[in-house]
Amino acid sequence: MKEKLRVLFEGLSFGPEIADKYIISAVHESGKSAVSGGRNSFLLQIESDELLGCDCINKAARLIKDELGVDNVQIYPKYPADLFCAEYITDIIGLMKHIPVVWGGLLDDVEINDDGEVFEITLSGSGREVLLAEGIEKEIEKLVKGFFGVGIKVEFTNSAVEKKGPEEAVPVFISTKPPAPKEADKPKFKNDFNGGGRRKNLEVLAEYEEIELPFEHEMFLKDAKLILGKVINQVPVDMQNVTGEA
Fold it and tell me: Which tens digits make up the pLDDT trace of 7-57?
């Protein structure tokens, strides 16, 4: 015969949303497991036709734990399948806080997206590999199946932007490719020499011109880009031949 929680544990001050829920099973566990989390634990299953938040469930479990003097008490609800929704996975995570890797905060502030079958849990930072190594995705799948009778697949994804400390610098990425010069930003090369027929304020070409040098030199490639002035059509004269100086 099923009993209400407040009747079986008379004298404990349960929240009104959970006090009248019926207990459908009670299991005493003496071995350590991921579910019980302790060597002397009780697992109670209650039925409910409305979703219960993890806070009220955990509070009731603490009251029973203190009353019985055991290592751990877990209260797991049994819901109709049509009550299942992605949002409730955060409450399921809240009921797993007795597992160290969950209690450590890796599943705090997660974002959940789904296509009805696969539920992608995006972490607020990194930690995906740690959670997978502990089999936490399988534990969530098992609890959803136990609570609602619904089979789902859970996947973890690290956040694209991880949380940074207050003194951690934000990296700046600088492109090595120079942007195309704009009309207003074209640099001008000024020559203050007024003689010799030189032009002042020569402008960089808007588009570089591919040319081939008319001479060979070990320090230069034959193919070049003209960015200023005119195409070189003659072989340059060695300055020593002009000035006679070494």
Answer: 999 999 999 999 999 999 999 877 655 444 556 888 999 999 999 999 999
**Residue 75 confidence (pLDDT):** 95
Q: What is the pTM of this model?
A: 0.61
Token pair of 29 as six digits: 């566990």
CA-nearest of 39, 43, 75, 40 to 60 is 75
| Residue 29 contacts residue 61 (beta carbons within 8 Å) | no
Burial class (CB in 10 A: 0-12, 13-18, 19+), 166: exposed
102: pLDDT confidence band, cut at 50, 70 and 90? Answer: confident
* pLDDT over 70 at 125, yes or no: yes
Between 25 and 218, name the one with better pLDDT. 25
Contact 128, 156 (CB under 8 A): yes
User: Are the CB atoms for 137 and 170 separated by under 8 Å?
Assistant: no
HSE (CB half, 13 Å, CA atoms) of 60? 31
Unique residue bearing structure tokens 């409450």: 91
